Task: inverse folding
C-alpha cells in the first residue's frame, strides 16, 4: 500500500504543476489580449486639413510653405537665406510657376490662363522680361528686349501672316521681313517706308500705304 505521506507528496507536486500551467496560460492570455487591442486601435489619419503647412529642417529653419486661400493655393520654397526660390500657384484666374535665383530675384515665370500661355525670362532686378514667348488668340510671338526694356526683336505669327521685326534702341521698327507682298523692307526713324526690293514699281502715293500691308505681329 501507498503510505499517506507519499500520497500527500504526489498531490503537492500535482498542485505545483497545475499552478505553473495556470501562470503560463495567464501570460499567454494577456499577450493575446494585448495583440487584439493593438489590432483594434484606430488607424493613423490619412487626411490632414490645414490652411498652411510650414516645412522646417531639424534645427527649425523654414524652407517652404504649403498654403491655401479662397483665391489661390500652392507651394512656396525658400533659399538658404530665406529668400524665395520657387513657387507653384494655382488660382481662380491664373496658374503659374515662378523660379528665383539664390538671391531671390525672379528669373523665370511660366503662366497659363484661359486666353494665354507665357514663358518669360528676367535679368536680376528687371521689371520686364528680356525674353518672352507667348501664345494667345492674337497669335504666337517671341520677343527679345534690351536692358532698357525696349522690344528689339519680335518674331511672330498672327492671322495676318508671319514675320520678324527689328527695332532700334528707341523701340522704333527699322526693318521687317515677312510673308507680305514686300518681303523685306527697311524703315526710317519715323517708321515710314525707306527701302524694299522692287520699291520703284510703286508710285509715291502707293508707297505711302505699303506699310499697311505688313502683317501685325502679336506682342506682349
Result:
Amino acid at each position: 500500500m501507498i503510505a499517506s505521506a507519499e500520497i500527500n507528496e504526489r498531490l503537492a507536486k500535482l498542485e505545483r504543476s497545475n499552478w505553473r500551467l495556470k501562470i503560463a496560460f495567464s501570460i499567454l492570455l494577456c499577450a493575446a489580449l494585448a495583440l487584439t487591442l493593438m489590432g483594434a486601435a484606430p488607424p493613423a489619419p490619412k487626411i490632414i486639413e490645414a490652411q498652411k503647412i510650414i516645412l522646417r529642417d531639424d534645427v527649425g529653419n523654414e524652407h517652404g510653405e504649403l498654403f491655401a486661400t479662397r483665391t489661390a493655393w500652392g507651394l512656396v520654397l525658400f533659399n538658404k537665406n530665406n529668400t524665395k526660390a520657387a513657387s507653384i500657384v494655382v488660382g481662380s484666374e491664373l496658374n503659374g510657376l515662378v523660379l528665383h535665383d539664390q538671391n531671390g530675384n525672379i528669373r523665370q515665370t511660366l503662366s497659363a490662363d484661359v486666353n494665354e500661355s507665357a514663358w518669360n525670362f528676367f535679368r536680376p532686378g528687371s521689371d520686364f522680361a528680356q525674353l518672352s514667348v507667348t501664345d494667345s488668340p492674337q497669335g504666337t510671338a517671341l520677343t527679345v528686349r534690351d536692358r532698357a526694356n525696349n522690344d528689339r526683336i519680335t518674331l511672330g505669327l498672327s492671322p495676318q501672316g508671319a514675320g520678324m521685326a527689328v527695332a532700334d534702341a528707341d523701340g522704333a521698327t527699322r526693318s521687317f521681313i515677312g510673308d507680305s507682298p514686300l518681303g523685306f523692307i527697311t524703315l526710317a526713324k519715323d517708321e515710314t517706308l525707306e527701302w524694299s526690293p522692287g520699291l520703284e514699281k510703286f508710285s509715291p502715293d502707293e508707297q505711302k500705304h505699303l506699310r499697311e500691308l505688313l502683317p501685325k505681329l502679336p506682342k506682349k
Remarks:
- The mean pLDDT is 82.
- Residues 1-39 form one domain.
